[in-house]
Amino acid sequence: MIEIIGATKVFDNGKTKIQAIKDVSLKINRGEIHGIIGYSGAGKSTLVRCINLLERPTKGKILFKGEDLTTLRERDLRDRRKKMGMIFQHFNLFNSRSVYGNIAYPLKGSRLSKEEEREKVLELLELVGLEDRVKAYPSELSGGQKQRVAIARALANNPEVLLCDEATSALDPKTTDSILELLRELKNKLNLTIVLITHEMAVIKKICDRVSVMEDGQIIEEGTVARVFTQPVHETTKEFIDTATNRNRIYEILNEGENIFNIEEGDVLARVVYVGKSTAEALLSKGSRRYEVDASILYGNIEILGNTPTGEMIILLSGGRGDIQRFMDYFKGKGLIVEVLDHGADTSKVCAKCS
Ligand SMILES: Nc1ncnc2c1ncn2[C@@H]1O[C@H](COP(=O)(O)OP(=O)(O)OP(=O)(O)O)[C@@H](O)[C@H]1O
Ligand SMILES: [Mg+2]
User: Fold this and answer.
1) How far apart are CA 75 and CA 285, in angstroms?
2) DSSP output for 260-313
3) Which end is more exposed in the chain, N or C (fewer Cβ atoms within 10 Å of the end residue's Cβ)?
4) Ligand 1 center to 218 CA (angstroms)
């Protein structure tokens, strides 16, 4: 649907040059919700604004349904842009226009009769669940309602792509959930492809199919949400994931060295990850019986990412050395990822980097 090929954007004010994105390539498939996460200044907004050429990349190509937008004349570009709606953190509504006026705005020039325009606006309002607020002004709406108006406005020209730049960052958690739920619903109803910028891993976890992690103008990691969550490669990705789970807390406790879990010499501390159907709990009790290994769960987290159940556990294994090894091999044989965490025998120092 969208393919960014070697895009670089340099902002040059005559004195200084800032390379906001550097040789970025990314493919976004039709119908997917693609998350882009990164710290402030990573280049997320610039990248997304390059997709609809609100920012023209200094170098590189932007393919939209196979057509390179950077080669189009202004008029054709305007036409293609209509196929990409956009919403923002601060909604960007016209305060002097009513809800109706805001949503009707992008329909100007579309040669609809007054009656058709009205029908379209009401249809859009129904889609976002705000039929009863047609006459209200933005100042009379809550943040969540404002974002619903902004979404309706972004959908006015029947786009195929919806670009969301921190669309939920100004909202409380419950309203965030309702907007994310709405986006998911609209995606299915209208066959949208969604690109969603956020700095919250929880948002990615909730609705994205794939995720790109950006740092310093580059995409440092990209993949399905299930893969990136369970097997992150880059340190920055791990940091983001830690914000969405309390896994780090367990490392902190273990590193405090108080040995509250009674780790004894010869015990093995292991991190177990599964993606898909393998039900780790049944394996734990089977493995435990079969190899005479005691397994206690120090940490466990089970998620449904996309439609994929995934789980992560930190377990403490006690038993004979060979038995523990066979227990772990048994898990690996069932398709689970097993990593032994580094910890001293006397204290319980754990190397969090091993995670
Ligand atoms: N119009 C501009 N002129 C000059 N520099 C810019 C411009 N827009 C962005 N930049 C710079 O490009 C870099 C990337 O900015 P960008 O807004 O894309 O980051 P971001 O990841 O969206 O950050 P945030 O999470 O804070 O929104 C920053 O260093 C920023 O200062
Ligand atoms: Mg931004």
Assistant:
1) 66
2) TT---TT-EEEEEEEESS--HHHHHHHHHHHHT-EEEEEEEEEEEETTEEEEEE
3) N
4) 13
CA dist 48 and 214 (Å) reads 12
Among 9, 15, 36, 46, the mutation site with the greatest number of ligand 1 atoms within 8 A of its Cβ is: 46
**Cβ of 40 less than 6 Å from ligand 1:** yes
Across the range 54-81, mean pLDDT stands at 95
Query: How high is the pLDDT of residue 253?
Result: 78
Which ligand has the shortest distance to the CA of 36? Answer: 1
Protein residue with least CA distance to atom 13, ligand 1: 20
CA 199 to ligand 1: nearest atom? 25
> Each residue of 38-52: pLDDT tens digit?
999 999 999 999 999
**Token pair of 339 as six digits:** 């990593």
The domain segmentation of the chain, as residue ranges, is 2-231, 247-354
Question: What pLDDT score was predicted for residue 343?
Answer: 57
Is the CB of 212 inside a 6 Å radius of any atom of ligand 1? no
- In this structure, are residues 189 and 208 in contact, taking their beta carbons and an 8 Å threshold? no
Q: Ligand 1 centre and the CA of 311: distance in Å?
A: 36
Partners of 311 in the beta sheet?
274, 302
**Centroid of ligand 2 to alpha carbon of 49 (angstroms):** 10
> What is the fold, at CATH topology level, of the domain defined by 247-354?
Alpha-Beta Plaits (3.30.70)
DSSP string, 59-118: EEEEEETTEEGGGS-HHHHHHHHTTEEEEETT----TTS-HHHHHHGGGTTS---HHHHH
CA torsion 135-141-143-145 (nearest 10°) is -40
Nearest CA to ligand 1 atom 1: 11
pLDDT of residue 278: 65
Cα distance between residue 186 and residue 123, in whole Å:
13
Percentage above 90 pLDDT, the chain: 72
Q: pTM of this prediction?
A: 0.85
What does the alpha-carbon distance between residue 147 and residue 150 come to, in Å, rounded to a whole number? 5
Residue 275 has a pLDDT of 83
Superfamily classification of domain 2-231: P-loop containing nucleotide triphosphate hydrolases (3.40.50.300)
DSSP, collapsed to helix, strand or coil, labels residue 206 as: helix
